[in-house]
């Protein structure tokens, strides 16, 4: 892998291969470092942010809410939000090779930390723009669940979204009681 990186240092698929190989060899810390470097080198490639957010969220959940990891998740969201604003401010004549928007993984990670720390309004603000009508997707279900629970914590609700979520997930009512526990179980499957 190092030989390939030496010969083709800007070949983006090598980053994915290097990450997966390093992770499969059990060096999770180094694999996460590869994703962090990839974000710095390729700041407008969404899947690098998503993978890093998924890894950070797993670590945050497994560490019982380590504040340093939580801050990293929130900072990653802010970083992606700033890049998203740059993209939105580009002239219409400028075309991107790939779409760039804040990923559901990054939104979930930041909102999870905010929710866990009692920042329900902040979590709502992070999640709401990422909510989609298609709740057949597990990522969308997790965002909707956390959003609905944060709304309940603030004394609000969204009956339409709740009904849609219940149609695809029969255990929604139970999961709303402790969404962090429900999400921890579903995030381990990612």
Features:
190 residues, Serine Threonine Protein Phosphatase 5, Tetratricopeptide repeat, 11 helices, 71% helix
Structural commentary:
The chain starts with a helix and ends with a helix. The chain has 190 residues and is mainly alpha-helical. 71% of the residues lie in helices and 0% in strands. The model has no long low-confidence stretch (mean pLDDT 90). Helix 2 runs antiparallel to helix 3 (28-41) and helix 3 (28-41) packs antiparallel against helix 4. The protein has a domain at 65-187: Serine Threonine Protein Phosphatase 5, Tetratricopeptide repeat.
Précis, in short:
With 190 residues, the protein is an all-alpha fold.
> How much helix, percentage-wise, in residues?
over 70%
**Mean pLDDT across residues:** 90
Number of strands: 0
The top level CATH class name of the domain at 65-187: Mainly Alpha
Q: What is the ordering of alpha helices and beta strands?
A: HHHHHHHHHHH
N/C terminus separation: 25 Å
Report strand %: under 5%
Under the CATH scheme, the architecture of the domain at 65-187 is: Alpha Horseshoe
